[in-house]
């Protein structure tokens, strides 16, 4: 084992121990969660057994209800950001049982609703979450879990909050996620189609041109699939 992996293993274990009695002040808790996310970002896919053993207690600690259901959205976003890193490591397998994964997806959708405000504390974290979801195709787990209503809500959230001042990577991640879901869906729901058609009405082209463009691109993909 390299010195890098030895140090990483040690830090993962230390992080797990700190979660046994997490700090109460919000800023301290956010700092801890940020450190954990950075640690997880250094874990490669298919890690060694020793890294997996060090990682497992941390994987369990992150789904503690006190964290997942914390009153502060910034805390929940950072928790989800770490969980998404774990999902990257375990991909294509989901890291948690079905009900937990549903709850995590609900938090992701809720976090996206705040992305229209680029000045918010969690903005960069949410953009990173979307990018990772698109890269590892985690959104397809939503289909496996039959989260149909949540998929519609996610599409609606993307179309409502995308803004001209978001970087191109955000739009690209959203389009990739939506396209993956559509391409792998056996049936396109009427609710999903309705949300898209509302956005691409001509009246919205001037009011929210970037939402209109995104909606139009996705509808084009749906039409191609239906044909």
List keywords for this structure.
227 residues, single chain, 0% strand, mainly alpha
In terms of DSSP E residues, the strand content is under 5%
Sheet with most strands: none
Order of helices and strands: HHHHHHHHHHHHH
Mean pLDDT level: 88
What integer value in Å does the Rg equal?
Answer: 19 Å
Helix share, percent: over 70%
Number of strands: 0
Identify the overall geometry: globular
Alpha-beta classification: mainly alpha
User: What kind of assembly state do the chains in view correspond to?
Assistant: single chain
Number of helices: 13
**Through-space gap between termini:** 53 Å
Question: Which regions are unreliable across 5 or more consecutive residues at pLDDT < 50?
Answer: none
Give a verbal description of the structure.
This protein has helices at 3-19, 26-41, 49-61, 65-68, 73-90, 98-112, 123-136, 140-144, 148-161, 168-184, 190-199, 202-207, 209-226. It is mainly α. Helix 5 (73-90) packs across helix 6. The mean pLDDT is 88.
């Amino acid at each position: 084992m390299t010195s890098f992996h030895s140090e990483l293993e040690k830090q993962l274990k230390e992080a797990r121990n700190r979660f046994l009695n997490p700090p109460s002040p919000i800023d301290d808790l956010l700092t801890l969660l940020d450190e954990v996310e950075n640690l997880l970002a250094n874990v490669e896919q298919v890690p060694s057994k020793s890294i997996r053993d060090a990682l497992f207690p941390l994987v369990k600690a992150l789904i503690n209800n006190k964290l997942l259901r914390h009153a502060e959205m910034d805390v929940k976003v950072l928790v989800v950001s770490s969980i998404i890193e774990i999902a990257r490591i375990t991909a294509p397998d989901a890291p948690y049982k079905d009900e937990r994964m549903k709850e995590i997806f609900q938090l992701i959708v809720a976090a996206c609703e705040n992305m229209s405000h680029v000045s918010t504390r969690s903005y960069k974290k949410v953009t990173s979450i979307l990018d990772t979801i698109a890269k590892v195709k985690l959104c397809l787990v939503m289909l496996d879990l039959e989260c149909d209503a949540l998929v519609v809500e996610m599409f609606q959230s993307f179309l409502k909050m995308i803004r001209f001042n978001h970087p191109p990577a955000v739009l690209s991640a959203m389009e990739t996620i939506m396209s993956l879901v559509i391409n792998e869906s056996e049936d396109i729901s009427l609710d999903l189609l309705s949300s898209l058609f509302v956005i691409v009405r001509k009246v919205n082209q001037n009011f929210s041109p970037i939402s209109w463009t995104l909606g139009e691109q996705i509808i084009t993909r749906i039409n191609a699939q239906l044909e």
